[in-house]
């Protein structure tokens, strides 16, 4: 089970850190990712971290502003989001699966956490 948290309503320019805590199984053998879904849009890739934490990949829209990291001891993945923009407003989902930007490669999903950024 994946439990996402840390969302909220903020002003543009501030930072938020999302957390995704895994329970019930060890996800260290999986790559982890964050996706997001804005109202009326499809769920899209945000960032991924390869199992072992040695490689990361980001969507162009968040590169340089967002950082994905993992704490295997805590079985938790984080998404540090800096310089937030109104277009970052979405429900953010964490997922576990194969290292990819493709949504279909992720087997396990969290319930989502809402991030709302106002200008």
Task: Give a structural overview.
Helix content is 0%, strand content 51%. The chain is built from no helices and 11 strands. The chain has strands at 2-5, 8-11, 16-22, 31-37, 44-49, 56-58, 66-71, 76-81, 90-97, 106-109, 113-118. Strands 2, 4, 5, 6, 9, 10 and 11 form a 7-stranded mixed beta sheet that branches. The radius of gyration is 13 Å and the shape is globular. The chain starts with a strand and ends with a strand.
Instruction: Give the distance, in angstroms, between the N- and C-terminal Cα atoms.
Output: 34 Å
Shape: globular
Question: Which spans of ≥5 residues are poorly predicted at pLDDT below 50?
Answer: none
Task: List the quaternary state of the chains.
Answer: single chain
Mean pLDDT: 94
Q: What is the structure about, briefly put?
A:
The chain has 119 residues and is an all-beta fold. It has no helices and eleven strands. The protein has strands spanning 2-5, 8-11, 16-22, 31-37, 44-49, 56-58, 66-71, 76-81, 90-97, 106-109, 113-118.
Q: What descriptive keywords fit this protein?
A:
119 residues; four-stranded antiparallel beta sheet; 0% helix
Give the secondary structure arrangement, pairings included.
Elements: E1 2-5, E2 8-11, E3 16-22, E4 31-37, E5 44-49, E6 56-58, E7 66-71, E8 76-81, E9 90-97, E10 106-109, E11 113-118
Parallel strand pairs: 2-11
Antiparallel strand pairs: 1-3, 3-8, 4-5, 4-9, 5-6, 7-8, 9-10, 9-11
